[in-house]
Amino acid sequence: MIRITLENLLARRFRLISTAISVLIGVAFLAGTFVLTDTLGATFDDLFAEVNEGIDVEIRSAEEITTEFGVPVRGRIDEAILDDVLAAPGVEAAAGAVFGYAQFVDPDGSPMGNPGQGAPTYGFSWTDVDELNPTNLVDGRSPAGPDEVVIDAMTANDGPFAVGDTVTILLEGPPQRFEIVGVAKFGRADSPLGASMAIFDLDTAQQVLAEPGMFDAIDIVAADGVTADDLRDTLAAVVPDGVEAITGDQLTEEGQNAVGDALSFFNTFMLIFAAVALFVASFIIYNTFSILVVQRTKEMALLRALGAHRHQILGAILLEAVIVGIVASVLGLVAGIGVASLLKGLLAALGMAIPSGPVVFASRTIWVSLLVGVGVTAIAALAPSRRASTVAPMAAIREVEVDESGRSTIRMFAGLALLATGLAVLMWGLFGDPPDTLAAIGGGVVFVFLAVAALGPIAALPFSQVVGRPLARWRGVPGELAQENAMRNPKRTSTTAAALMIGVGLVASISIFAESAKASINKIIDDAFIGDLVIDSGSFGFGGLSPELAADLNELPEVDAASGVRIGFAEIDGEPQTIYGVDPPTMLSIVDVGISEGDVGDLHSAELAVHDDYAAEQGWEIGDTVDIAFAQTGVRPLTVTVLYTKSELTGNFFMGNEAFEANYPDVFDFQVFVRRSADFTSEQARTAVEAAAADYANAEVQDLEQYKQTQADQINQLLGLIYALLALAILIALIGIANTLALSILERTHELGLLRAVGMTRRQLRTAVRWESVLIALLGTSLGAGVGLFFGWAMVRALRDDGFTELQIPISQLVIVLVVAVAAGVLAATQPARRAANLDILKAIGTE
Amino acid sequence: MVALTDSEIYLTTNAAARAEKALKEFGSGDTSVVALDHVTMSVEAERFTAIMGPSGSGKSTLLHCLAGLEPLTGGSMYIGDTDLVSLSDSELTVLRRDRIGFVFQTFNLVPTMTAERNITLQLRLGRHPIDRAWFDTVVDELGLRDRLHHRPSELSGGQQQRVAVARALINRPDIIFADEPTGNLDSSSGQEVLGFLRQAVDNFGQTVVMVTHDPGAAAHADRVIFLVDGRIVHDLDGPNVDSILGQLRRLEA
Ligand SMILES: Nc1ncnc2c1ncn2[C@@H]1O[C@H](COP(=O)(O)OP(=O)(O)O)[C@@H](O)[C@H]1O
Ligand SMILES: [Mg+2]
Questions:
Q1: Element (H, E) at A6
Q2: For the structural domain made of A538-698, what CATH number should be given?
Q3: Taking Cα atoms as reference points, which of A211, A254, A178, A194 lies closest to residue A100?
């Protein structure tokens, strides 16, 4: 049987190549994701190891707050601890370290780097202890004094800047100019993974990046013969409460784990698309093997008659699938390396800077890819193989008939049951509270897709009549043939269409989701925003606009009110939360947050405003005191003083600047809201605001329309990435259409020869194949649009309480998808149509 | 056997189709096969011509070349006054569609189409109007009235061939080519189909060229042309089974 399998594979290699390609693409994506995340992980691991290389022990605050982004923030420690450390036994050298936000402004006045999306823009303190200094000066000297800075080689190159130049740096305070006294590399690299570095002497760093008298950490080199562990234990006894000592190795491991967590999120995100691609591919495999099995009925019957057992037939076909799976997976693995760099390029094109490092090809990548690729192929081929094994030895040599089996009642009930299950699970995931929301939603979606695929043959017939009738009238016999051939094997057609349905369905639902998000944001801005201008920093959580800007703006006669919005991280009941800081009276004259209880005038240093829904959930009432943990100040009791109803602009919590500044040492506005004075036109106000903001290179002055556009652009960017990834699923589906058509044409060789003999022109034949393809594509697109509309609606409804108040159905985009599907159908038909048209008529008539 | 050396004498003036020194070679060099060896002949209009000969003698090739399905290696072919050699592939296709009717041995019909739509296939391919009265005449003549809405798989072999004959007739073609039309039928169905081809000539003034190796079938024709090794070796006018069998015996000798 193995010989027979191999001979079959060779004989049908061209048919199987396209099947293999669909698996190959899915596997390549899977492997590419692994390679990319492993490579990134290794690159970051190396970075952490390099940074901490000379550190034997680090002393730092024990107060740590996890944030909603997963990256923890930590408080600072008193610089006086350094003296105790230096006096401790076993310490060779120690230095205080400070870091914070510092962003260079290029000679044209534009901010360099994009801390909101790309690598961070860091400021560091310089240390003269060589072991503790990860940088190497390549030009100039170390910084000394309040006006001097050393910059990283990447920034020097990009600026361009040279030693002796002056550079403007954006800081927590107003932007400052520094003299560049040196250029440094980070180890051997120009910069730490694309992050920029502004390096100041320790005093200056404390001043401009942090707080005078405080360090972020103290790094220590152990004396000869003292182990890091011993020194850590010694120092742990020396430092005060709330301060901890850890070894350099622990520090490295912590950093690596944090990056690993962030990457695993990214990994999951990408793997979802790999799964979609493989899911689509499984339809193609199923279909191809089903068709091949039908075409080989006679051969199978002969083998059975000659004494082959059922399990031998089953095994032979499964073996064929496994071999296809292995070949495809191996090629996919190799292609995965290319995919990894493509993905990297895609992310880079979307503004997410990704550092480069040596490619990591882990053994896990190899076995998972092979297992998944071969597994998917074998499972998808299982049902067709079983069907093949049930061929009766005396199976009659029948003429090709119109297959009616797609409309059985069993199929209908099975499909409906599957649909009901899928919908139930999906709804549970969206509206209920399952243990794993993502799994419930994903599972529901997969079930719904499978159900629609199962019900497809039933839907296919009325569909083809509605679309096919006018087609037949319009295109004549080619139109008729297209419609009839598309309906000849309703199962085959609808399985092929279902592959396309998946991609289209996901695109449709995501576009509904995104359009609804934009509409909801616009509505929020329209409803809540009384102001005229928004100044956006593009940062969220790291750096931003100096609070000086809002202060400056409030001085302008053209401005009635300007309020900065800060964000800080805190833990409430152990949960990471984001707290907004505003100047309440000013803020409320620009933004309507819907105060339902309390007076914002009462928000002082120990008060808090809470969104009413959250308060109700927690059982909090006005006057209650709640414990909130801050990184710098520890657990603080705050009094709930104000309740409000609109959470869209200020989240679940906000406090007055007094309270904010009492708990957060570093204060940046991520946005400033501005309302102009009625005495000035919006033109005048804008000109004045722009002039005042000119020094703040990262301040982007926007009117409301521009602000809405910025928000929409952010969504569009993510949307672009998702579409690009889903395009893969659609590409696989198109390969599937081409494959099915090619196989069908092979089956119909005889009648195509007849048609050509009695006078069908090549062009007419091509038209027939092309329209058959378009019909399949339209069926898939319609099913996909239907399913997508439903998914989109469900998602938006499920998130109604999270601000998705508007349901927006992007008709024009759906129409575009439809048009593209038709074009794609035409494209997929090109090769099969050409083959059909160029068929040798006499040979075709002669074909048995 | 004197007359057989000069093929020219088979030319007649009232020709629906003609071959002049038609040469058809398959392959090239050592392996080449000459299927038609400078055949010159004509098919008279409104007559029933049969082509006979041993297997591999070039009967089908002659038919295919005449029908514009196979290009010649040399010489010329005419349907009426149309020189097939000068036509492009798409012109030949249109010629087959509008001027030629076909009845093949098997697989005559498109399986997805009903009998009615198979019958009107050529007209519809050319988007020509269907002459309803003529359609009714043909359908009734062939006894297909109650089979019109059946698909080929629901028809017997004889019925399928009748549908093919109806398709060939509906077009009122210049010439109908039939390649072993009864080869796959039982004898009574075969007789039926031959009767219809005869009627097509007698009642409707059609021209029919049929390849067969069955003397009984050939006896329905007005004339039988005998091929051996790609050459015309005999031309029998007004044949009957006996004269055909006699000629075949002579050829074998
Ligand atoms: N497509 C082809 N390729 C090569 N040789 C062919 C082809 N078609 C026919 N022949 C050869 O041409 C000769 C005549 O064939 P054909 O016309 O089919 O004979 P008949 O119909 O009389 O049995 C035979 O020797 C046959 O093998
Ligand atoms: Mg023959």
A1: helix A2-11
A2: 2.40.70
A3: A211
Are the C-beta atoms of A642 and A600 separated by less than 8 Å? yes
Residue with tokens 């297992």: A371
Distance from CA of A381 to the nearest CA of B (A): 28
Give strand pairing partners of A778: none
Residue B110, in any domain of the structure: yes
The verdict on residue B32 lying in a domain is: no
Name the one residue in this structure whose structure tokens are 């004094």: A145
Nearest chain A CA: its distance from B82 CA (Å)? 16
Rounded Cα distance, A583 and B212, in Å: 103
Q: What is the CA radius of gyration of chain B?
A: 18
The CATH number of the domain where B118 resides is what? 3.40.50.300
> B98 CA distance to ligand 2 centroid (A)?
24
Name chain B contacts of A841, Cβ cutoff 8 Å. Answer: 69
pLDDT tens digits, one per residue of A393-409: 665 444 444 454 555 78
- Joined together, the tokens standing for residue A807 give 């349901």
SS3 assignment for B32-69: CEEEEEEEEEEEECCCEEEEECCCCCCHHHHHHHHCCC
Greatest Cα pair distance in chain B: 55
- Unique residue bearing structure tokens 């083959």: A835
Number of domains comprising chain B: 1
At A560, which amino acid appears?
A: D
| ipTM summary value | 0.91
User: Which chain B residue lies closest to A841 (C-alpha atoms)?
Assistant: B69
Domains of chain A: which residue ranges? 1-94+227-395, 99-209, 459-530+704-848, 538-698
CB A50 within 8 A of CB A187: yes
Which domain does B238 fall in, by range? 44-66+85-252
pTM of the full structure: 0.82
Tokens of A678: 């009625």
Q: Are A77 and A215 in contact (CB under 8 A)?
A: yes
Long-range contacts of range A402-409, CB-CB < 8 Å, 24 or more positions apart?
A402/A487, A402/A488, A402/B111, A402/B112, A402/B151, A402/B153, A403/A488, A403/A489, A403/A490, A403/A491, A403/A492, A405/A491, A406/A457, A406/A458, A406/A460, A406/A489, A406/A490, A406/A491, A406/A494, A407/A457, A407/A458, A407/A461, A407/A490
Answer whether B27 touches A (CB < 8 Å).
no
Identify whether the C-beta of residue A381 lies closer than 8 Å to the C-beta of residue A318.
Answer: yes
Q: pLDDT digits over A824-848, tens only? A: 889 999 989 998 998 888 888 875 4
CA–CA dist A707, A693 (Å, integer)? 16
Helix axis angle, A762-798 to A749-757, nearest 10°: 130
Q: Please write the tens of the pLDDT for every residue from A757-782.
A: 999 999 999 999 999 999 999 999 99
Q: Considering CB atoms only, which of B67, B95, B124 is closest to A477?
A: B124
Each of the 253 residues of chain B gets a pLDDT tens digit; together they read: 333 334 444 444 568 999 999 999 998 888 889 999 999 999 999 999 999 999 899 999 999 999 999 999 999 999 998 999 999 988 999 999 999 999 998 878 998 899 999 999 999 999 899 999 999 999 998 999 999 999 998 999 999 999 999 999 998 999 999 999 998 889 899 999 999 999 999 999 999 999 998 999 999 999 999 999 999 999 989 888 999 999 988 887 6
Q: How far is CA A665 from the centre of its chain?
A: 32
Nearest by Cα to A463 from A819, A778, A770? A778
The DSSP secondary structure of A106-127, one letter per residue, reads -TTSPBPS-TTTSS-EEEEE--
